[in-house]
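Q: Two folds, back to back.
A: First:
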Amino acid sequence: MPVMKFYAPDEAGFLPCEVGAYMLYPTSAKLRNAYLAQNMAGYTLFLADEDELESVPKEVLKALLESLDCIRVDRFEKLSIMGSVAGEILLNLIKLSASGEEASVGRATDLGSPYFQEARNSLGGRIASSDSSIERAWKDYKFVAHFWAALRIHVQATANPATPISPDSYLQLLSLANELGKLAPTLTSKHAGAPIYSSDVLWTLPNFIELPGCTFNCHGLDEQEQERLRTYTAKSASKSDK
């Protein structure tokens, strides 16, 4: 499995930015580096204000922040939604497998349809709900889907999703992502005849990141999801008969 490269391994406060760069740009080192440069400038400026120490002149940091316009804040929300789509598909694949059902991307995508529509509405239609758009999100973000899936579980379990994640909770989230990443290569589709994931495509954390213990137990599909699956299976059978 490819291992994430961190540029400030001793700065615990910068860890979310290091991981976030891969979550937002799993396939582009250039965009990851631009994102990290922008955030490192902001982080260093924050430390300078807090400690009244200037390892780099504030004017230089501010100029750097203004010059990095290739990473626009208004794109982050769309990229986050695409990552969340991939996370939802991975969670549904795990649920299907835990329920003893055929774990195919098609089935997992259909189970996630209500969430995908909700995501589309939240962006004012700026992300399409078409099959091609969902397929692209999965294709581009499946390498980090375990991190997005862990974040989705955290948000669902949080009373107020707007509450900032504490450092300890963030490490718990990363530990959960690590467990989900272990499950991903075990997912197989009978029709595909091969694992959905190969073990060498998932981004993983460096070994020096100390994670707390975590156990993930999946209880499979709930009744509503089982009913949706039956409807999907019936539709698929009907199409094959035509």
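A: Second:
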Amino acid sequence: MREDIEIHAEFLGEIYKTFDKERIRLLIGDEEKQVKINYNMNNLVKKAQHFSVEIMMFIPGLAYSNPSENELTFIIATQKQYSDFYIVPTVERLNKLMKNSNFTIQDYISLIKNYLNLLEGYPEKAVMGMVPINIPYQYIGELMSIYIDRGVESFCIDVGGRTALSLTQQIIEVQRSLAKDKIDAFIHATNINIGRAKKGSNTITAKDVLSLGLGFDSIGDNHLRPYIRDAIKNPVINLRLFDKDAYGYHKIQEAREIKEIYPVDSGVKPEYLLDDSLYRRRKAQATFNYEQISMETERLRKVIGEGAVGSYVRNKRYVDKDSFKALQRLKRGYQGSGH
């Protein structure tokens, strides 16, 4: 997000770092590399403080399998310094790894247990269990049991770059596990996709924001997509801006289209979204969407508390019937688990 833009909204800070085998080997074996990543982490924390972020989460994404004890303790030590939770690492694209290699769910379970065992000796802090739901349904209950048996009551759901509503059975199993033990858990979702535009439409149903109605307490970015970085001028606008009154992401290609959907409560001025630099423009887009989603999260919490989420969401212009029906079915499961 851009620090030069003043906005007023509540955020949770999500720091997501991808580690391949070579990168983490260098971090453990080269103090200069370590200094560099710590400098970056300190800058991210300072930026979070600028936006009055009260809770920081450092989520490690592994691009390889079977990390060593040294690699896991390095991650834990980094979380001790920069995160309000000890968060079990996710393995990126775990579903493909399980299909295309010898890596099995038991390997990931071993990773979880090794991580949890290694927490002994570190200062006490809340633990957040990682539950990748882009894996076969049959494994979700086993993962949840491991965490619940260890007293874990906070969870990070890794949606794996998909929309949460495309993996409903996995979410229902998470609900069932929590309801069975009467756990009112804090649930964060990461790597969550906003959805796709229907053919002939310039608007995407905001399925990431809809997932808040499933009982997720917060949502993060999808970190599995290609990252665009440039400092040159690029005249093509090509933005996706969230409309909290209609639950859609509008595809913006011309300046006049921003004016048509621009909300009066935004602190992100239209000129920031029209910057000549693609990099700065994307940063402004992220700031705008975080701001608007934060405002809608607060509004949605009140609606959920009043038990009126169904009628509230039904009236959103871009919420299609299939998404609404899926939300309603899943919401009934959460009512049984305290969400």
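Q: And?
A: Residues 333-339 have pLDDT under 50 and may be disordered.
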